[in-house]
Specification:
The complex is a heterodimer of chains A (227) and B (510). By secondary structure, chain A is of the alpha/beta class. A five-stranded parallel sheet of chain A has the order 2-1-3-4-5, sandwiched between helices. In chain A, α7 packs across α11 and α9 crosses α10. Chain B folds into three domains: 119 residues, Rossmann fold (3-Layer(aba) Sandwich); 132 residues, Rossmann fold (3-Layer(aba) Sandwich), CATH 3.40.50; 201 residues, no CATH class. In chain B, β4, α4 and β5 form a beta-alpha-beta unit. The radius of gyration of chain B is 31 Å and the shape is elongated. Classes of the chains: A alpha/beta (227), B alpha/beta (510). At the A-B interface, α2, α3, α4 and α6 of A face α5, α8, α9, α12 and α17 of B.
């Protein structure tokens, strides 16, 4: 099934700390189908602004300085039942708690230990008001969140062919396409095809995401002395 | 919940081995799979595991209704999903009419969506709207709303339906704006909305989505002159529609549809009443138990501290505040997690620990009270931060009146936990009393309190609620009082303390 992406997302973001809010917004406003309509650091202010900004999606942190994200979400849904809400939680939550949150009208829960792509996925899948549960919440992968993320990244890296891995590492070093083509003895069109395929396979939209991903893979390889 | 490693059990019925391999490779980490190449195997699994099965996924050329029927019978809460290849509109309409499936996805399917749907079914997410305070009204005439921009067609259909003695009174709108207005006007009697998909301004499925948000029980029917399988499927998957009807309309078919829609609507309303009544009855019991538990731990200390039944008064004040209503989610939190014991323990513990820091012997002296009153206007106008206030309250002997500082801190907690500042308070000297009051139209927002429904215990809630009780206790001990007056998700506060200066009536407006 393809998600109906015709409707644009009108995004409102509530996070108490400015730095994190800025970082998240910098990522999200880059996405073509997102209109950023408002932000806040507090719960009661959010409720006031929602009426004025009429967003379609609210991303809200669980712990705020006043009230908590969940209470504010419940109030926001009383005001506007069609609002899609994604709750950001500090760490992994149990399935039981997840069920309670979703039952209270939240459409998706994303933990701050998850990757940016997971939040993007949640935004995409909930845009038409559907509930979305990420595999992270239900798979019983052993270990800490950090280890889980690493293991997922490594798995994704090895889903690339050897040639794609090679192209990805050149791209991550910001080597121009023409130069990569020259080094590998292929046409620049072929490199463009590889580039497209790599981004699709890894679920990235932009080069900076790939650069960060490849840096992490590099650190992981060094730690584990992998080829 | 019901299988090894707590993975959802998924019964997968397939024809092609290649499809099965694909499904297994996509979901082997996520589900415990029961792979069935024949109906007989699938039925045996259903009979054996029944309600433990989270989802039945059929990946065949055509949807075998018998398997879905059996699932409905043996495991009504299981998700019924059909993975199709080029399904026709007739088949979608039939599946809808039979109520056979919950979800229908085209192959190649998006594994994230399939996984999410199965997980949601596994952990029991109800997808039901959380409106739990239905208005009790006796509806004498039910209405059906027909929306289409072809006004001659709707006019004719309305007349035909009247001639057929249709069970509902027919309302007609020729655009989405008019339809939304009528849906609002007839909110309590509107049983069905039938809308054309292609209309100027807003598509039919978008209109149904908007109406559903405010009329959650209303039965929704989509109609179109075009073979819009995708639209029909999206509407099915988004839980939007009851039927999909092709145009041109057949009045008899529509009349029969309205009849069955009315039955379904009444069932929806009655289920919601039952759900609401079950939630509120159970919630009353929970609150009564919560109050008893709090009294058991706190009453002796509270009585000893203020010499009055302050706890009863505090509970009465809270109960005058109109907070968020209980829902199935909050009930679930109270019943399925340790929320109740955590709430009672954390609240009592915080109150007792705060009281222990204010010794009973710690009382205002005339000098300390004077310093307190001098410092108050600065604090209330927002000019002095609490740390400067501490300096100001500390006298020549370097002793800071604990009670004075505690009152300021308690006020600060109450205000900050609602994102308010001290300048919403006003200070008055009246009839030998000092009054600190919330200004008119500056009531303090509050959505939940210690006697309301919760989904989790938060530090902000504990801070605010403990501060309210301790402030009441401290003021009463000093010969004053605090009155909290409830409003709609707000409260106002009047704190009174005896004026040691015995001042004349002065009003300090911040």
């Amino acid at each position: 099934m393809g998600i109906n992406t015709s409707t644009r997302i009108r995004l409102f973001l509530t996070m108490k700390q400015r730095l994190y809010r800025d970082a998240l917004l910098a990522e999200l406003v880059n996405q073509e189908d997102i209109d950023f309509v408002g932000e806040s650091s507090s719960g009661t202010e959010t409720l006031g602004l929602l009426v004025r900004c009429s967003p379609s999606v609210l991303i809200i942190e669980e712990d705020l300085l006043d009230n908590d994200g969940l209470t504010i979400s419940e109030m926001a849904l009383v005001q506007n039942p069609s609002l899609t809400i994604i709750l950001l939680v500090d760490s992994d939550i149990s399935q039981k708690r997840l069920a309670i949150y979703l039952d209270s009208g939240i459409k998706s829960v994303v933990s701050k230990t998850q990757a940016m792509q997971d939040l993007s996925k949640a935004l995409n899948y909930t845009r038409n008001g559907q509930v979305y549960i990420d595999a992270e919440h239900c798979r019983s992968i052993q270990g800490s969140s950090m280890e889980k993320n690493k293991s997922i990244d490594v798995k994704r890296y090895y889903s690339l062919s050897v040639r794609e891995q090679e192209v990805a590492s050149h791209m991550a070093e910001r080597i121009p396409v023409m130069k990569i083509a020259e080094q590998l003895g292929v046409s620049h069109k072929t490199i463009h095809t590889y580039k497209e395929r790599i981004l699709i396979k890894l679920g990235f939209q932009r080069l900076p995401e790939l650069i960060l991903f490849m840096k992490r893979i590099q650190f992981h390889k060094q730690e584990n002395e992998m080829p | 919940m019901n299988s090894k490693n707590n993975l959802p059990i998924v019964l997968y019925r397939y024809d092609q081995q290649a499809s099965c391999d694909e499904f297994v490779s996509s979901f082997q980490d996520d589900f415990e799979l029961l792979l069935c190449v024949t109906d007989a195997v699938a039925e045996a699994h259903l009979n054996k595991k029944g309600r433990n099965i989270s989802a039945v996924v059929v990946d065949q050329g055509s949807a075998p209704s018998s398997l879905f029927e059996l699932t409905k019978k043996l495991s009504p809460l299981s998700l019924r999903m059909f993975l199709h290849q080029d399904i026709g509109l007739d088949a979608v309409m039939l599946l809808l009419e039979q109520g056979a499936i919950n979800k229908c996805f085209a192959i190649p399917y998006d594994s994230n969506v399939v996984r999410s749907e199965v997980y949601a079914s596994h952990i029991g997410v109800s997808h039901k709207p959380q409106i739990v305070s239905p208005e009790e009204v006796e509806v004498r005439t039910y209405h059906a709303l027909i929306v289409d921009d072809e006004t001659s067609a709707t006019k004719y259909l309305k007349k035909q339906l009247k001639d057929l003695n249709c069970t509902c009174e027919i309302l007609v709108a020729d655009n989405a704006v008019g339809a939304l207005a009528l849906a609002k006007q007839y909110q309590l009697s509107l049983a069905l909305v039938l809308t054309d998909q292609r209309m100027p301004g807003m598509l039919g499925n978008q209109l149904l989505s908007q109406i559903r948000n405010h009329n959650p029980d209303v039965i929704r029917v989509l109609t179109s002159a075009y073979e819009e399988v995708d639209v029909a499927l999206n509407a099915v998957n988004e839980g939007q529609i009851f039927r999909y009807i092709r145009k041109p309309w057949d009045a008899k078919e529509i009349c029969a549809c309205i009849d069955s829609a009315l039955t379904a609507y009444r069932a929806n309303v009655s289920q919601r009443y039952e759900r609401y009544s079950r939630v509120s009855t159970r919630f009353q019991e929970l609150i009564s138990n919560r109050k008893t538990a709090l009294e058991k731990i706190l009453s002796t200390t509270v009585y000893a501290y203020s010499g009055q039944k302050t706890l009863d008064d505090f509970f009465n004040y809270l109960e005058s505040i109109d907070t968020l209503s209980p829902t199935t989610a909050t009930l679930r939190a109270s019943e399925e997690t340790n929320l109740e014991s955590e709430l009672v323990h954390e609240f009592s513990h915080t109150v007792l620990s705060r009281l222990s820091k204010i010794p009973g012997s710690s009382e205002f002296t005339v000098t300390s009270m004077q310093r307190f009153y001098e410092a108050l206007p600065g604090y209330l106008s927002g000019e002095s931060e609490v740390c400067f206030l501490e300096e100001r309250l500390t006298g020549e002997q370097g002793i800071m009146p604990i009670v004075a500082m505690e009152i300021i801190n308690l006020l600060k907690h109450i205000l900050e936990s609602s994102n308010q500042r001290a300048n919403i308070l006003t200070l008055e000297y009246l009839n030998g009393c000092v009054l600190i009051k919330t200004k008119v139209n500056h009531e303090i927002p509050i959505f939940k309190h210690i006697l309301s429904a919760h989904t989790r215990v938060t530090q902000q809630l504990l801070d605010q609620q403990c501060s309210m009780l301790v402030l009441l206790l401290v003021c009463r001990r000093q010969g004053g009082d605090v009155v909290f007056k409830g409003g709609k998700q707000t409260f106002s506060m009047t704190l009174s303390l005896p004026d040691f200066q015995e001042s004349k009536i002065v009003s300090v407006d911040n």
